From TrEMBL:
This is C1q domain-containing protein. PANTHER family: C1Q DOMAIN-CONTAINING PROTEIN (PTHR40131).
Length: 197
């Protein structure tokens, strides 16, 4: 053992804890332990956190798909969804690359959004199980919904068509609803979004 180690050991022995030092340390340990929550408190907090997470997750049952190819399918001009941008519930929002139909397996209320971008405003229809439920006609000032709204553009933008033809609405979908869009107009791009309410 080196002289330095021997000197440190002797110094440590001289600083040996007395009863007061031990009692002081025990009081500190007890104080730290008393700050820790009980099992009941932890269970309560976990339960509250679960409720919060459940409500947040229910607000985010959504899917969004992008049409990038600019080409439609068939004589009905169905829009093929080329890219899945987000899908937080693939069991409910069933998508296949380049297919025109998104299947919503669960019935209920859904928020639907879509946007289509081309040099001129196109004519777009949203279909549920092959039947049109929303139409946006080829006009800068009018959208036909079977119960609402008008769209109005303010004129051309220097960067091109930055606003597109967009729509937000709400649908009561049946079980296994097949949602699709038809598009008539110049080659363009678009998106479709669905959110379960």
């Amino acid at each position: 053992m080196s002289a330095l180690h021997l000197q440190e050991s002797l110094s440590a022995l001289k600083r040996k804890a007395d009863v007061e030092d031990v009692n002081r340390s025990l009081v500190e340990v007890n104080r730290e332990l008393s700050l820790r929550p009980t099992l009941a408190e932890l269970n309560r907090v976990v339960g509250e956190q679960s409720l919060i997470m459940e409500s947040l997750c229910s607000e985010h049952l959504l899917g969004r798909w992008i049409w990038k190819s600019g080409k439609t399918k068939g004589d009905k001009h169905a829009v093929p969804w080329n890219v899945q941008n987000i899908n937080t519930n693939p069991d409910n929002f069933v998508w296949e690359r380049d297919r025109a139909v998104i299947t919503c397996t669960a019935p209920g209320l859904y928020e639907v959004t879509f946007g289509f971008y081309s040099r001129r405003k196109p004519a777009v229809q949203l279909l549920v199980n092959g039947e049109p439920v929303l139409s946006a006609v080829n006009s800068a000032t009018y959208a036909v919904h079977h119960s609402s709204g008008r769209l109005a553009a303010v004129g051309p933008h220097s960067a091109g068509n930055v606003s597109g033809l967009t729509l937000i609405d709400f649908l009561a979908l049946p079980p296994k609803a097949r949602v699709s869009c038809t598009y008539q107009g110049e080659e363009g791009e678009g998106f479709l979004g669905l959110r379960k309410m």
